[in-house]
User: What shape does this take?
Amino acid sequence: MTDTAIDKQAVAASFSRAAATYDQVAELQRSVGSNLLARLPEHLQVERIVDLGCGTGYFTRALNARFRQPVLGLDIAEGMLRYARTQGPHSSQWIAADAEALPLRSSSHQLLFSSLALQWCPDLAQALRESLRVLEPGGRIAFNTLVEGTLQELRDAWQAVDGYVHVNRFMPLAQLQQILAGAGFANWHCDVETHVLHYPQLSGLTHELKALGAHNLNSGRPGGLTGRARLRALTAAYEAFREPAGLPATYKVAQIILHKGLTA
Ligand SMILES: C[S@@+](CC[C@H](N)C(=O)[O-])C[C@H]1O[C@@H](n2cnc3c(N)ncnc32)[C@H](O)[C@@H]1O
Assistant: This one.
């Protein structure tokens, strides 16, 4: 997300509130995280692994099962961690922290994994500096993040209604590539996947975003309740995008692997 005014406390509170509902609606999140996991080399053996922005711990458990190592699940939302702890694995450790200020020793971990979390960092470059610091020489971070074009239909529909920023801003791909190139890693790889979900009605999408804790937290969002008239206007504007399969919601997911050099 490119808005430096994004409020981390609000992000943490919103995800904490969503902890109990997240897994029921997180189909896309599981799919893109699994695609990221599949990008790791088949025979990779690592220990000292962190799941950054672990949420309910779905991928903390997947990493634990794949590498047969304890995994550190780290998240800014205490409510997410409380929920994750109840799901196991019991060998995992959980820690409340900010990806931009990791309370971890330098050169202490071999693999950092992060699925759909770092777009919530106001300063991605800072999160990558922290990742580089914490990785051992030769270690890697595998992460994915949302880029511009994500929820474009919703953004355009709101724009037609009142011109406010109602949808989180996502970084243009070129800006992301520039950050990756300047992040101090020995090499980087970035591919973009496009996923289009379909909903019979707009309420299906908006309820899902709320259940994920991912509804709009950018500054510039108007305060107060969404009036009925505005909601009707939004629904009408979104109808312009309707396809035979339903109302589309596009997600552009950048899947990224960065290697720390052996001499770094
Ligand atoms: C969309 S959820 C993804 C959760 C999990 N990785 C998954 O794929 O199911 C994003 C998570 O990132 C966490 N998060 C947001 N900003 C963060 C930050 N600055 N540091 C650590 N975690 C953060 C949120 O609290 C939330 O649990």
